[in-house]
From TrEMBL:
It comes from the Bacteria. The keyword Transmembrane helix applies. PROSITE patterns: PROKAR_NTER_METHYL. This is Prepilin-type N-terminal cleavage/methylation domain-containing protein. Keywords: Membrane, Transmembrane, Transmembrane helix. The chain crosses the membrane at residues 20-44. It holds the Pfam family N_methyl.
Length: 199
């Protein structure tokens, strides 16, 4: 008969580990810190992108609204002048009933003056384009209301070199804020005064 093989006696169980070592904790903290810094960087980039989109949206709205308003008034004006010293565009036209009853009545002469505000609305919004309106006379200080913001300082004017008053073409220039750093984008648009173009 063959001798029976006996297995060796089991070794005593290894002591059970009760927690993490200091090195494991430091590695976990470092990995957590890297993840938090990455998430913070993503949040900051998203916020900056949102702010740039907001500025671009404000600029586009300002440009669209201001050009449509000015083109409409320049087209129908029978008297049109620009004071370069004051930076004011003065538009006069008769009210043919399209104005609201709260303002000028039908047949009265409407006088509108466009100019930039005397101070910036805020550093991020820049200056506002103000419009004053009165009937049969120039508007006073209390008649002016802001139309749109996002203009740079001295960002509204008339390009006198390109303006062809004989044919009724007026070139109006805008300088709008493009970033929080004070960078600007310059625009010029042409508006034709119908009365001068027909003469």
């Amino acid at each position: 008969m063959r001798p029976r093989m006996t297995s060796p006696a089991p070794s005593p169980a290894a002591p059970r580990q009760a927690g993490f070592t200091l090195i494991e904790l430091m590695v976990a903290l470092l990995i957590g810190l890297i993840v938090i810094l990455g998430a913070g960087q993503l949040f900051l980039m998203g916020f900056q992108t949102f702010r740039q989109i907001e500025l671009l949206s404000n600029k586009q709205a300002a440009l669209t609204f201001a050009t449509e308003t000015l083109i409409r008034d320049i087209r129908r004006a029978d008297t049109l002048s620009y004071d370069s010293a004051a930076g004011e565009l003065k538009v006069e036209f008769p009210n043919n009933g399209e104005m609201s009853s709260a303002s000028c009545s039908e047949g009265q002469r409407v006088v509108r003056i466009y100019r930039l505000s005397s101070a910036a609305v805020s550093p991020s919004e820049g200056w506002s384009l103000d419009m004053g309106q009165n009937c049969d006379g120039d508007p006073s200080g209390s008649d002016f209301e802001p139309l749109v913001t996002s203009f740079a300082e001295n960002g509204f004017g008339r390009d006198e070199m390109s303006t062809d008053e004989v044919n009724g073409v007026w070139v109006i220039t805008f300088s709008l804020l493009s970033s929080q750093d004070g960078d600007t984008d310059d625009f010029a648009f042409r508006a034709v005064n119908r009365n001068d173009a027909i003469d």
